[in-house]
């Protein structure tokens, strides 16, 4: 009898020590699919889903404090960026979180792989039937009406109560694919080079940005120097997504026409991930990739530029490589000092939890000393090349407080480009570095557009640059494009040249830019743009005005003043 009681006690203890993961609680949900998506039926039970788990990080508040300490002028730690190991110490999950999540996976016969340097992201594949069972989900097929693209998503899912506080999210679940990549708009037909002009013989370009934007125009307008950078360690990264390939022959033609003073060997290097590549046939040259490389290599004279081509073998689960590229760079001992990206999506297509995870990834890279710049989007207050809406649509990642959002201007006396996306995040609160500037704008705005946007949200864009009538070469043809996609690489090139001077002087690169940009010295070094608007959602949108505004931000660069502002 005693032996039976002892056995029963040991059995109860064993059960207590090994969770059964049967009690579930709703973790994320959304009432409806985003505008433009319709559900067309249940997903096939045997369809395989590539799922990702984000574990709770150890100390993101501590990392945020450290980020601001190394990024805020006047701080005792300003410029003392963190090492790879120091960042990972803040980010890595606790041993308890790793243990309980692994127990959950083992209980369901799931083998997962770690896909981030700090071990906070795991990946695995399971069929729809199993995903529905263990997450109490209803995975269905959704179609984007305008593009016809289909994806498998659920509007709600649950996790075991034992994982609460240890698991941040499961992806992709309630986050929807990006229906519109933030690509430039071809604003005039690309014509054959021979028919348009003899690029090899042209020795100068118009100095006015009124009708045509070229490197010479930008040098005149913003005071960008043509002298070669000297520091090989200070690099500029250009993101490449969705099979956009950067063509070196087109770059050579562009530089021969626009920057004949640069060495004939001037080009970019290549890094790849997720099966990325960069084929060089003229027919595969990408408008976006060519724009981004031509207006970094052609503006940031002599700065080592790397084109980072992200393929379609995503490890981040239909985030189209957005998280993968950051984890890729976080895994490097010396990531680029500047990273420019001309892609994005509407904030309402992504879950708040996932947006936070991505934003935190930008925080990690910023703490390492990288300036992260993104185009703000091309739909005015309608978002990223978006159309119908009632409330204004913020874009992502522009709503993230740990990166720099770049809007667009046009003309010699610069005015806001009417497509320049800007507004206020519905996910992230106004960060302290911009609270005074945003408060001034809101006071001047009054009740205009009341109820259409989140007055307490992180405001964007932060800065701007030329984004219309920008000349590029694609597939041997020349033409012009427009979009905030033009503005981001232009502003990034200015930052890269500043970093080159700083490193040459024995100082640190700028890293996370916003605390500096919103400081008195940073703001005074920018050209304030006070006219134009960004209509959308059947409204006139916001209007540019003195000081910061959600169309052109704080303004466009003045290189000489920025050089002084950074202490050179």
TrEMBL record:
Binds 1 Ca(2+) ion per subunit. Its main location: secreted. SMART domains: Pro-kuma_activ (SM00944). One of its GO terms (cellular component) is extracellular region. Transmembrane segments: none annotated. The active site is at residues 288, 292, 485. GO terms for biological process: proteolysis. It catalyses: Release of an N-terminal tripeptide from a polypeptide. It is found in: Secreted, Extracellular space. Keywords: Calcium, Glycoprotein, Hydrolase, Metal-binding, Protease, Secreted, Serine protease, Signal, Virulence, Zymogen. It holds the Pfam family Peptidase_S8. It is an enzyme of class 3 (hydrolase). Ca(2+) binds at residues 528-529, 547, 549. The keyword Secreted applies. Residues 1-17 form the signal peptide. GO terms for molecular function: metal ion binding; serine-type endopeptidase activity; tripeptidyl-peptidase activity. Its cofactor is Ca(2+). Its EC number is 3.4.14.10. Residues 212-568 form the Peptidase S53 domain. Secreted tripeptidyl-peptidase which degrades proteins at acidic pHs and is involved in virulence. This is tripeptidyl-peptidase II. It comes from Phellinidium pouzarii. The lineage of its organism: Eukaryota, Fungi, Dikarya, Basidiomycota, Agaricomycotina.
């Amino acid at each position: 009898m005693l032996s039976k009681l002892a056995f029963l006690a040991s059995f109860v203890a064993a059960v207590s020590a090994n969770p059964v993961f049967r009690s579930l609680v709703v973790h994320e949900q959304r009432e409806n699919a985003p505008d433009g998506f319709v559900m067309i039926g249940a997903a096939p039970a045997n369809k395989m889903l590539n799922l990702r788990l984000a574990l709770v990080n150890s100390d993101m508040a501590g990392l945020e404090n450290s980020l601001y300490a190394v990024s805020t002028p006047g701080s005792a730690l300003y410029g003392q960026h963190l090492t790879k190991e120091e960042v990972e110490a803040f980010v890595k999950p606790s041993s308890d979180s790793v243990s309980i999540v692994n127990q959950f996976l083992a209980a369901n016969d799931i083998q997962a792989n770690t896909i981030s340097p700090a071990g906070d992201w795991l990946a695995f594949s399971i069929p729809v039937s199993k995903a529905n069972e263990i997450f109490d989900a209803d995975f269905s097929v959704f179609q984007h009406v305008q593009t016809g693209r289909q994806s498998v998503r659920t509007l709600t899912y649950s996790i075991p109560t034992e994982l609460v506080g240890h698991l941040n999210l499961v992806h992709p679940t309630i986050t929807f694919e990006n229906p519109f990549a933030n690509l430039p708009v071809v604003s005039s037909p690309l014509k054959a080079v021979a028919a348009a002009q003899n690029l090899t013989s042209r020795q100068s370009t118009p100095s006015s940005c009124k009708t045509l934007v070229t490197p010479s125009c930008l040098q005149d307008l913003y005071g960008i120097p043509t002298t070669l950078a000297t520091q090989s360690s200070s690099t500029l990264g250009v993101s490449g997504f969705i099979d956009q390939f950067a063509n070196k022959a087109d770059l050579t033609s562009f530089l021969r026409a626009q920057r004949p003073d640069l060495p004939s060997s001037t080009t970019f290097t290549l890094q790849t991930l997720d099966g990325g590549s960069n084929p060089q046939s003229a027919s595969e040259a990408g408008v976006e990739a060519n724009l981004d490389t031509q207006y970094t290599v052609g503006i940031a004279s002599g700065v080592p530029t790397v084109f980072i081509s992200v393929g379609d073998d995503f490890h981040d689960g239909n985030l189209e490589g957005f998280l993968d590229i950051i984890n890729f760079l976080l895994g490097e001992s010396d990531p680029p000092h500047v990273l420019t990206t001309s892609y994005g999506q509407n904030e309402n297509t992504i879950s708040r939890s996932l947006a936070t995870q991505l934003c935190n990834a930008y925080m990690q890279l910023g703490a390492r000393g990288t300036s992260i710049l993104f185009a703000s989007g091309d739909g005015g207050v309608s978002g990223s090349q978006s159309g119908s809406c009632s409330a204004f649509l913020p874009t992502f990642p522009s709503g993230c407080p740990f990166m720099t959002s770049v809007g667009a201007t046009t003309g010699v006396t610069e005015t806001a480009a009417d497509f320049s996306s800007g507004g206020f995040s519905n996910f992230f609160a106004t960060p302290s570095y911009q609270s005074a500037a945003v408060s001034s704008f809101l006071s001047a705005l009054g009740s205009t557009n009341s109820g259409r946007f989140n007055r307490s949200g992180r405001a964007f864009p932060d800065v701007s640059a030329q984004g219309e009538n920008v000349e590029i070469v694609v597939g041997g043809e020349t033409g012009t494009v427009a979009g905030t996609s033009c503005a981001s690489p232009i502003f990034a090139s200015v930052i890269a040249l500043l970093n080159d001077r700083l490193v040459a002087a024995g100082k640190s690169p700028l890293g996370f830019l916003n605390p500096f940009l919103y400081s008195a010295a940073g703001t005074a070094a920018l050209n304030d743009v006070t006219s134009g608007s960004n209509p959308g959602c059947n409204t006139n949108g916001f209007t540019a005005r003195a000081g910061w505004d959600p169309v052109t931000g704080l303004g466009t660069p003045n290189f000489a003043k920025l050089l002084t502002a950074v202490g050179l």
